[in-house]
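Section 4.2 – Deliverable D4.2 (structural model, holo form)

The reporting period included a commitment to supply a predicted holo structure for the target in complex with fe (ii) ion. Inputs used:
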Amino acid sequence: MDINKLKISHLVWRINFRSMIYGGKGTVELSSKDYFLKCPIGVWLDEVKVKYFVNSENGRKLIREYEALNQKVESAFNLFIKGRFEEAKVVADDYIQASNRFLEFLDSLSTSDLTNFDVTLRPLQTEKIYWGPAYETSLLLIDSQHRQLVNIVNKLCDLVNESPNVHIEANLFEDLESYMVIHFSTEESMMEEIGYVGTEIQKENHRLFIKSIYNFKQRFNEKKAPLTDLIGFLVNWLNRHILEEDKQFCKAYLEKSKIFN
Ligand SMILES: [Fe+2]
Ligand SMILES: [Fe+2]
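Output (structure tokens):
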């Protein structure tokens, strides 16, 4: 059982879920109950459910936690289809926090727990990430740069769907490197321009991102890292850095520019 791949699929699914609730492109494809039923962790749990309940306290806890999580999805979805968009967004944001806690719990399970829960799954397909208003900052330059990263992640998802052990193309690292250099310097000079209070934290996180990417590059060259590790890292970055820290900074930037204009 590849827990990492399961988590990545969940994170990608959850990005698309939030994107849909925020009215993103891809809404036509996404706003159906079928899409919600596809949450990879839900599918996995359905398949292992009986074993879980019989064999393990942790398994029962995992099911309970997931069901609580899924109630939030249903509630956001129901509000969304009734046109109560603002309420749906609040529930969706709450869901993201609950999903983080759920993933932490999944991480805390021991390997033996997970081996007990193992079942043969049909091959997991990692969905593509749909760009949408959930990511938009109202700063077109930043949005277009963030979009480049989403494109890179989608290319990696295509590769991993072909085969988890597929060899990564050198030009994908070149794309990532030019993204880092151009995008981080754009953001950092804008932060300095307005004297943004979170500049040092952003710079430190950008530095850690660069360090991790070079580390991945070296491990790929030595054939020591599965592709899913890199996708997992990037999807987490999208969730935590772009959707939270960058959005905060862009909001501050827009507010400051209104004052000056
Ligand atoms: Fe960014
Ligand atoms: Fe940033």
